[in-house]
Write a structure and sequence with these properties.
The protein contains six helices and eight strands. It is 32% helix and 14% strand. The strands form three sheets. The protein has a four-stranded mixed β-sheet. It has a two-stranded antiparallel ribbon with strand order 5-6.
C-alpha cells in the first residue's frame, strides 16, 4: 500500500547496510514481481504465501542452500533474473502458528478509537475468496496454477487464537 515509502526506506537502508540482502514479499510483490525484482534495492521477491519460503531462505543464508532449490522466489544472479517454480498453496491453514513470543510491543498492533474502543489491527482466519471478481487480487492468484479456493481455519483454531491474543492484549 505504501510502496513508494517502502522503496525509499529500502534505498536508505541499502546505503547504510549494502551487504544485507533485501527480500520483498506480500501481495503487491507477488502480482508485480517482474517490476520489483528489477529494482536495484530488491534482491529476492517471495511470491504468494511466504511462510515456508522464508524458512527456506533462512536455510539459504545459514546453510548455503542454493536459491535455485527454493520454490516461490524470484532472484538476481548478476544481470540475470531467475524465477523458481511456484510453491503450492497452504491447504490447511490450521498448520500456521500464531507466535506472540517474538513480539515486544503488543500495543503497536492495537488501534484505539476516540470513543475508547480498542481493536486488534490484523487477524487472519481465512485466505482466498469464494468469488471471482476480475479486478481483485484473489483472481490474480489464478496466475499461480489455477483458481485458489477459499480456505478457512477451523472454528477451534480461531477461538484458541483469539484467546491467545486476549491473553497478551487488554481490550
Amino acid at each position: 500500500v505504501f510502496v513508494p515509502q517502502i522503496m525509499e526506506f529500502a534505498i536508505q537502508f541499502r546505503k547504510h547496510r549494502p551487504e544485507v540482502p533485501l527480500i520483498w514479499g506480500g501481495w503487491h510483490s507477488s502480482i508485480y514481481s517482474d517490476y520489483f525484482i528489477r529494482e536495484p534495492v530488491v534482491d529476492i521477491v517471495v511470491k504468494w504465501e511466504g511462510e515456508a519460503t522464508l524458512s527456506h531462505l533462512v536455510d539459504h543464508f545459514t546453510q548455503d542452500i542454493p536459491l535455485e532449490e527454493i520454490n516461490g522466489i524470484i532472484f538476481k544472479r548478476g544481470d540475470n533474473v531467475i524465477e523458481t517454480p511456484n510453491r503450492k498453496w497452504i491447504a490447511n491453514l490450521d498448520t500456521l502458528g500464531l507466535d506472540f513470543e517474538c513480539i515486544d510491543n503488543y500495543e503497536s498492533y492495537v488501534v484505539t478509537f476516540p470513543n475508547g474502543e480498542r481493536l486488534f489491527q490484523s487477524y487472519q482466519s481465512s485466505r482466498g475468496c469464494p468469488y471471482n471478481c476480475s479486478f481483485c487480487y484473489n483472481n490474480r492468484n489464478s496466475l499461480v496454477g489455477g483458481r485458489v479456493k477459499c480456505r478457512v481455519k477451523s472454528v477451534d483454531k480461531v477461538l484458541n487464537e483469539i484467546d491467545t491474543i486476549k491473553s497478551y492484549v487488554e481490550f
